[in-house]
Amino acid sequence: MVEVKVGDLRAVADVVRRIVTDWDTFVRAVEALTREHEEQRASFERFQREHQELRVGHERLLREHEASIEALTELREAHHALLREREASEHALRDLQGRYDALQQDRQYASDELEAVLRRLKL
Q1: Distance (Å, rounded) from C-alpha 102 to C-alpha 92?
Q2: Running DSSP on this structure, what letter comes out for residue 83?
Q3: What is the four-CA torsion angle of 27, 32, 33, 39, rounded to 10 degrees?
Q4: How far is CA 104 from CA 33, 91, 93, 97, in A?
Q5: pLDDT tens for the chain, residues 1 to 123
Q6: How far is residue 77 CA from its own chain's centroid?
Q7: Fewer CB atoms near the end CB (10 Å): N or C, the chain?
């Protein structure tokens, strides 16, 4: 049999107790890190989904913006065309008004001349 001193046995027990305590602390730390890692992974996956949704929304808004710009450009062109048409119509109206006024004057002159002729014939 091997002789073991009580002091040595206590030292060994202390060492074993420290090893067990250190191991327990290590296991708790690993478990805590594992939980934290899973939480971080879940957060990361949620952020990835949100990022993808935002990207899709951004692309949709970009397409809508481009469509709006295109529609606005078409409206501007139509507006300019209408302005040119209005100016042409106003010019045509002024021209027609001038012709109408000239015809009215001619009519009045002809009416006055006919009246004068009728008076002369009645005499």
Answers
A1: 15
A2: H
A3: 150
A4: 102, 20, 16, 10
A5: 456 565 688 888 899 999 999 999 999 999 999 999 999 999 999 999 999 999 999 999 999 999 999 999 999 999 999 999 999 999 999 999 999 999 999 999 999 999 999 998 887
A6: 23
A7: N
